[in-house]
């Protein structure tokens, strides 16, 4: 009974402070949306316009205390004694738009700086005089863009592929949908979970035919890929292939993101049976997904990789630039037509890599010549590449690389994985961790991951390069140079890359490429 009397008394005190007036207080469109850490203005104003300089203005959270306001303005000044401590130093009276004259015309909007997830919710705007009061409610939504979407594909024995799509760290709860250009897709599962921080994760999976093109959308973020069913294992290998399928948690993967509107990067992991077990070295890959290394971490292992001058008759190699002779004044009459990138224009690099972590960068274009369309970049365990224009090497042959054509980027896996659409990067970063079994590729200009695959690497491995034929732009292996710093004898490393080209495509000037290591 005592508690009930206190509640009734509190309501009476609130209501008796002033008499209500009708339709004098208005608020802007609701809800108001703000990115985490940014500043929001919750609009609220008197209508018709009238001065609020001598009125009481109180912003508070409904249900959390009229007497512990977010902001309190009375007697022509802000009062801080009773203010909710969570808003101290972050709130002030703002302007609902650029034409507002503020309190003089009854604009009592709330300006909230450094928005947090805990700030999301409803806010009451309360204005009163000695004779009347009015109140209105404004909702605030604090938004956080989640992590790049992770798309995983696992081939299963019945001829289908299990695709899962997940992303974490969103506010508010994101939408997720699957798209197929030919039919409507209904996922087998769509689940949301909320972390203690208040951020939301989403996960969905779907079963589809093994040869498919599909997109996963999380909000405006699209991850799109085209898959083809892995080839049947050769006769006599059924035992180890079946064993590999049972261990399909092992990663053979690619990561790619296409943000149609936001221009960010996401990840794609593709699991397949072909590299789960290596019959040659009897090595099993570690179980579980391997998160790709950040480019900032990878660049700490920079190595100066150079092309092997092996006398390839279809290439010209000078100053770490590789170009096909078809772009030279004297064309080789034996250069075959057909595919733009074949083993005829592929070479290895030095040094050979037997252990450890290694990172290098390759320029694939410049402002004068544009971007290369046709290329291979990666690693191989083959020291001498056969001069065979009909050979299309893959991971089963000891070739792990990313390739580019006019229509897609593609990994050299047995299970064909196309990353759609191009263009590729201007500067490609390559990171190899032999013990961990990771090979990752980066867009250096955007400081973002393009794709990552893992395999049971055994050394020595040789850097692999193929400039293809017909492109104006050369392929250049960028070298890290050490320059003396100023003061104290410190040194800093810089990557030098091509910026302008002369009449023959050779560099005239250089600039710092990417971050200082």
SSE diagram, text form:
Layout (H helix, E strand, L loop, with lengths): L1 H15 L2 E2 L4 E3 L4 E4 L4 E3 L1 E3 L9 E5 L10 E4 L2 E3 L11 E3 L16 E3 L8 E8 L3 E12 L6 E6 L4 E11 L5 E4 L9 E6 L5 E10 L2 E7 L2 E7 L10 H9 L11 E2 L7 E5 L5 E2 L4 E2 L10 H4 L7 E2 L7 E4 L2 E4 L22 E4 L6 E7 L1 E2 L3 E2 L3 E6 L18 E6 L4 E3 L5 E3 L7 E7 L4 E6 L4 E7 L7 E5 L8 E4 L1 E5 L6 E11 L5 E6 L5
Parallel strand pairs: 1-12, 3-12, 13-21
Antiparallel strand pairs: 2-5, 4-10, 6-7, 6-11, 7-8, 9-10, 11-12, 13-14, 14-17, 15-18, 16-17, 18-19, 19-20, 19-34, 22-23, 24-27, 25-26, 26-39, 27-38, 28-35, 28-39, 29-30, 31-32, 31-38, 32-33, 33-34, 35-36, 36-37, 40-41, 41-42
Structure report:
Residues 20-139, 148-226 form the Ig-like domain. Belongs to the immunoglobulin superfamily. BTN/MOG family. Keywords: Disulfide bond, Glycoprotein, Immunoglobulin domain, Membrane, Signal, Transmembrane, Transmembrane helix. The protein has three domains: 17-143, Immunoglobulins (Immunoglobulin-like, Sandwich); 152-282, Immunoglobulin-like, CATH 2.60.40.10; 292-517, SPRY domain (Jelly Rolls, Sandwich). The chain is elongated. Residues 1-23, 232-287, 329-338, 484-493 and 496-517 have low confidence and may be disordered. Strands 15, 18, 19, 20, 24, 27, 31, 32, 33, 34 and 38 form an eleven-stranded antiparallel beta sheet that branches. Strands 1, 3, 6, 7, 8, 11 and 12 form a seven-stranded mixed beta sheet that branches. 5% of the residues lie in helices and 40% in strands.
